[in-house]
Amino acid sequence: MTAEPERLCELALLVAELCGDDPTYGATRLNKALFLSDHLHYKRHGAAISGATYERLPRAPAPRGILAALDWVYDNRATLDIAAVNLSLGTTQTYTS
């Protein structure tokens, strides 16, 4: 199964929107939420949401290419219709179209 970077970005943005207000939200929480979302969707429907391949890290599994996906979101923030979301990059990024 090949990963679709756009789907991984959309899933990361959804998780950021839903969890961004949590003071404990960060990179580890993002990675765990992405993994659990993909895993549960695969278990229920036979296909992952993002199609990403996950690698084992000390604190949580992380999708391969997550940093590149988040960099892509940051680089294309001018064309994306996104309000303020915390992408666990250290600060809250505010995007406008």
Account of the protein in words:
With 97 residues, the protein is mostly helical. 45% of the residues lie in helices and 10% in strands. It is built from 3 helices and 4 strands; from the N terminus they run H-H-E-E-H-E-E. The protein has helices spanning 5-19, 27-45, 66-75, and strands spanning 54-55, 62-63, 84-86, 92-94. The chain has a two-stranded antiparallel sheet with strand order 1-2. Strands 3-4 form a two-stranded antiparallel sheet.
Low-confidence stretches: 89-97
Tell me the major beta sheet: 2 strands, antiparallel
The portion of residues assigned to helices is: 40-55%
Q: Spatial order of the strands in the main sheet?
A: 1-2
Number of strands: 4
Counted by DSSP, the helix tally is: 3
Question: Distance between the terminal alpha carbons, to the nearest Å?
Answer: 32 Å
Percentage of residues in DSSP E strands: 5-15%
Shape: globular
Judged by helices, strands and strand pairing, the structural class is: mainly alpha
* Radius of gyration, whole Å: 13 Å
Mean pLDDT: 78
Could you spell the SSE succession in H and E letters? Answer: HHEEHEE
